[in-house]
Design brief:
The complex is a heterodimer of chains A (147) and B (206). Chain A has 147 residues and is mostly helical. Chain A contains 5 helices and no strands. The N terminus of chain A is likely disordered. The N and C termini of chain B lie far apart (39 Å). Classes of the chains: A mainly alpha (147), B mainly alpha (206).
Chain lengths: 147, 206
């Protein structure tokens, strides 16, 4: 493929250098030069002045618009963070049940260590957070009736 | 290069070497109006010569030439210097001409492809093919211009950039975004097309 390409390019060069091809080249070279009028040049200058003014205006607008846009976005973001939607709060409620269970377990274990320590088991130590187990009573009904 | 001011012809200084053109380009990048004016002076006629052969309507060609320089001025800060200013300007011109041509739906009458196997070539012994003679033969120039305008824009652009603007194959390839081989092929076909046109002219004259 490379050889074929180089052969093609070589062949094209030879054909391009042929007498007929070079004659046409000279003819095209001999075509008269083009020239533009001063009126054209004046018109171009006017358009360039307008183009410069437009570019400077865009730059000035960018100086004002970009900081304003940045501030607006920052304000919107801050408002979103400060005033979270209500669904976010309701989602937190189920967690409180788990949290309170964990806290009471921790509280009980602390009580165990502080009060019970050796000799007492967890059932013998209760906290105010947990209601007393009605079955876990020193006195039974039979005991009460026997009195 | 010269410009006309009234009836006087004023010779303008062209950026003759790379260093001076590089300095001019730097100033243009900083939106130096005067520097850009010098650039326009150096290239306006050449760009117009290319554009008016790509676009038939002379008024539209003049407007498009202005568009080339307006666009160049607006985008000069993006010019990275990887190619020459000439290549860059002609690239802008080419793309604008192609866009305009598509909008105008110009349909040139293309002559069939030249068959190298035919072996017919212009007889250079014919005195009409002497460049000096051609320079003063307006009728022949008209025939040549019509021959150029009758070929497709793909062939025309390569022919003008190489034979009229004296650009190298690699530079034309860079300007038009083509492989060098394609540039050479199109140049060959463009010249062959003109050969056909001129041959018919000579036969009609004879």
């Amino acid at each position: 493929m490379v050889n074929k390409k180089s052969q093609n390019s070589g062949m094209n060069d030879e054909m391009l250098d042929s007498v007929g091809q070079q004659a046409v080249r000279k003819i095209v070279q001999a075509l008269p030069e083009d020239s533009l009028s001063m009126a054209w040049r004046s018109s171009l200058n006017e358009r360039l002045v307008v183009a410069v003014a437009q570019k400077q205006k865009k730059k000035r607008m960018a100086w004002i618009v970009r900081p304003a846009l940045g501030l607006s976005l920052a304000t919107v973001f801050a408002l979103i963070v400060m005033f979270q939607p209500s669904w976010r709060r309701s989602m937190a409620t189920p967690d409180r049940g788990i949290e309170s269970a964990i806290m009471s377990d921790h509280h009980n274990s602390v009580l165990l260590n502080d009060v019970g320590n050796a000799g007492l088991n967890a059932n013998e130590v209760t906290s105010e957070a947990n209601p007393e187990d009605p079955d876990d009573d020193m006195w039974s009904d039979a005991d009460a009736q026997s009195l | 290069m010269e410009i006309c001011i009234g009836s006087a012809r004023v010779k303008l200084r062209e950026p003759s070497n790379q260093a001076s053109e590089a300095a001019l380009v730097d100033r243009c990048r900083r939106q130096d109006f005067e520097a850009f004016g010098q650039l326009v002076d150096a290239y306006q006629n050449r760009v117009f010569g290319f554009v008016r052969r790509m676009i038939v309507n002379p008024e539209e060609a003049a407007d498009t030439t202005q568009d080339v320089f307006i666009r160049a001025f607006q985008n000069f800060d993006r010019f990275d210097g990887r190619c020459s200013v000439r290549t860059w300007l002609f690239r802008i011109a080419y793309h604008l001409c192609v866009d305009k041509a598509r909008k105008n739906v110009r349909s040139p009458q293309e002559v069939g492809l030249y068959d190298p196997a035919d072996g017919d070539e212009i007889d250079v012994a014919d005195t009409r093919w002497q460049p000096e003679q051609i320079a003063i033969d307006e009728e022949l120039m008209t025939v040549v211009e019509e021959g150029i305008s009758s070929m497709s824009e793909k062939l025309r652009s390569v022919l003008i950039l190489h034979d009229k603007e004296d650009m190298a194959y690699e530079e034309i390839a860079q300007t038009l975004g083509l492989p060098v081989g394609t540039v050479k092929s199109r140049l060959f076909l463009a010249r062959a097309h003109l050969q056909e046109v001129l041959k018919r002219y000579m036969e009609a004259g004879a």
